[in-house]
C-alpha cells in the first residue's frame, strides 16, 4: 500500500505534462506531410549466407536448392541424389528500402534474416543476390559480410545462452542500385502535398500559407491533400518544393481524444478534452479471508488420529470515497486535479472515463486500443 501514492504521483505527472506543455507554435510544412511520389520503395530478395561455424540450416531442402542455384552460376553441378549437409550455410530473406531519386551505382543498407533452422548468422557472408520491387523487376544487387548484434551459444549438456537475435543482421552499404524508379516528378502541371493526418483546418492553413508566398498556386483537393501548380523543369520544381517545405503554419488544435491501452492500462488525454457537469464517486470494496487451521491431537492411548480443524476469518472493508463535482466545461487541468484528489489508480480511471462518456459529460472521442 505504501507504493500507491508514488504510482498516483507518477500518473499525475504524466497527465500534467500534457496540461502544462508549451503553447502551440508554427511548424514547417515539411513536418506535416510529404509530396506525393517522393517516397521509399520496399525491396525484397532471397539469398544464401555461407561461412557459418556449423550454425546453418543443415539439411533443409530449400537451402540445398538455393546453394545448388548459387554454385551453378560457376558451372558446378551437383550429382542427382546428392544432398550436402549445409551446416555452414543458411537460406535468408533480404529486405531494403530504395529511397526516392536513388540512382544506379548508389549504395543501400540491407537487413538479412534467416528463414530456416539456422541458429546464428555470425561470421557469415551473403552470396550475390538480386533485390526485387513490387513489380517483379530487379532494382539492386546485394553481397557482403554480415554484422550481427546477437550471440547464441550451445553447450554439450543442452544448455543454451542467447543474447539479442543472432539469426538476423545487417550489411551497411551492401546493395548497389541497378535501376532508378520513375517518380513522375517532372510530369504534369501539378504537385500534390499529402498531410500525415486528415484535418481540413490544417489543409486550409497549408494552402493559405502557400498562396501567401506564391499567389494563386495552391488549392485544396480534400482535407488531406493540396494541389500546387508546378511548371518548368526539374530544377524549378525542386526549388518550388524547397520553398514550400520551409513555409511555417500554425497547426490546428487536434480533435479531443482519450486513448486507453487496455493491455497496459496506459491512459493518454490530449489538451482539447472538456468535461461537462457530472458528479463522480469511486468506491473500493476489499474482502480479505484469513485461514488459521488448528491441529487437533487425540487423547493418549485413545487410538485416535491427528486431524486438522479449519478456521476461516472473513473481513469486509469499504474505503470511503467522497463524491466529487466536476464543473461544466472543465479543462484538462481541472479534470486532472479532481482525479488526483480522489486518488484514483489508472485502472479505475478508465472506468470513470468510460462512464463519463456514456453519460454524455465527456467531450472527447474515447479510443480503446
Explain the overall architecture.
- This protein is α+β, with helices and mostly antiparallel strands and 369 residues long.
- Helix content is 21%, strand content 36%.
- The strands form 9 sheets. It has a 6-stranded antiparallel barrel. Strands 2-12-14-13 form a 4-stranded antiparallel β-sheet, with helices on one face.
- Helix 1 runs antiparallel to helix 5.
- The chain is flat.
- The N terminus is likely disordered.
For the residues shown, what is the average pLDDT?
A: 77
Q: Work out the helix count.
A: 6
Which segments are poorly predicted (pLDDT under 50) over 5 or more consecutive residues?
A: 1-23
Main beta sheet strand tally, sense and closure: 6 strands, antiparallel, barrel
Supply the helix-strand structural class: alpha+beta
The fraction of residues assigned to DSSP E strands is 35-45%
Total DSSP E strands: 26
Q: Supply the number of structural domains.
A: 3
Radius of gyration: 33 Å
Helix content: 10-25%
Sum up the overall morphology in one term.
flat
Strand order of the largest sheet: 3-4-5-11-7-6
Q: Gap between N and C termini, in Å?
A: 29 Å
Amino acid at each position: 500500500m505504501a507504493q500507491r501514492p508514488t504510482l498516483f504521483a507518477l500518473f499525475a505527472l504524466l497527465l500534467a505534462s500534457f496540461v502544462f506543455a508549451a503553447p502551440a507554435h508554427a511548424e514547417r510544412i515539411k513536418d506535416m506531410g510529404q509530396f506525393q511520389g517522393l517516397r521509399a520503395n520496399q525491396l525484397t530478395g532471397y539469398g544464401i549466407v555461407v561461412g557459418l561455424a556449423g550454425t546453418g540450416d543443415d539439411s533443409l531442402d530449400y537451402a540445398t536448392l538455393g546453394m545448388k542455384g548459387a554454385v551453378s552460376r560457376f558451372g558446378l553441378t551437383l550429382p542427382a541424389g546428392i544432398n550436402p549437409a549445409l551446416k555452414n550455410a543458411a537460406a535468408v530473406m533480404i529486405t531494403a528500402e530504395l529511397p526516392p531519386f536513388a540512382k544506379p551505382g548508389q549504395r543501400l543498407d540491407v537487413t538479412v534474416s534467416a528463414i530456416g533452422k539456422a541458429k546464428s548468422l555470425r561470421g557469415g557472408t551473403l552470396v550475390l543476390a538480386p533485390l526485387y520491387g513490387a513489380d517483379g523487376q530487379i532494382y539492386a544487387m546485394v553481397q557482403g559480410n554480415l554484422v550481427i548484434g546477437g550471440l547464441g551459444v550451445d553447450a554439450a549438456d543442452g544448455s543454451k545462452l542467447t543474447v539479442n537475435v543472432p539469426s538476423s543482421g545487417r550489411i551497411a552499404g551492401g546493395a548497389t542500385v541497378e535501376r532508378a524508379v520513375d517518380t513522375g516528378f517532372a510530369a504534369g502541371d501539378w504537385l500534390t502535398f499529402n498531410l500525415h493526418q486528415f484535418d481540413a483546418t490544417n489543409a486550409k492553413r497549408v494552402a493559405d500559407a502557400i498562396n501567401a508566398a506564391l499567389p494563386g498556386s495552391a488549392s485544396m483537393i480534400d482535407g488531406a491533400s493540396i494541389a500546387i501548380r508546378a511548371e518548368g523543369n526539374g530544377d524549378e520544381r525542386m526549388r518550388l518544393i524547397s520553398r514550400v517545405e520551409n513555409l511555417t503554419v500554425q497547426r490546428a488544435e487536434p480533435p479531443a481524444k482519450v486513448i486507453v491501452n487496455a493491455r497496459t492500462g496506459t491512459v493518454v488525454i490530449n489538451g482539447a478534452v472538456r468535461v461537462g457537469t457530472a458528479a463522480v464517486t469511486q468506491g473500493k470494496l476489499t474482502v480479505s479471508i484469513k485461514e488459521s487451521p488448528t491441529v487437533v491431537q487425540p487423547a493418549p492411548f485413545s487410538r485416535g488420529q491427528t486431524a486438522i480443524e479449519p478456521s476461516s476469518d472473513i473481513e469486509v472493508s469499504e474505503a470511503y470515497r467522497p463524491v466529487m463535482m466536476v464543473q461544466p466545461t472543465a479543462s484538462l487541468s481541472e479534470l486532472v486535479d479532481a482525479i488526483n484528489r480522489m486518488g484514483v489508480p489508472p485502472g479505475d480511471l478508465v472506468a470513470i472515463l468510460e462512464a463519463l462518456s456514456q453519460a454524455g459529460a465527456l467531450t472527447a472521442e474515447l479510443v480503446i486500443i
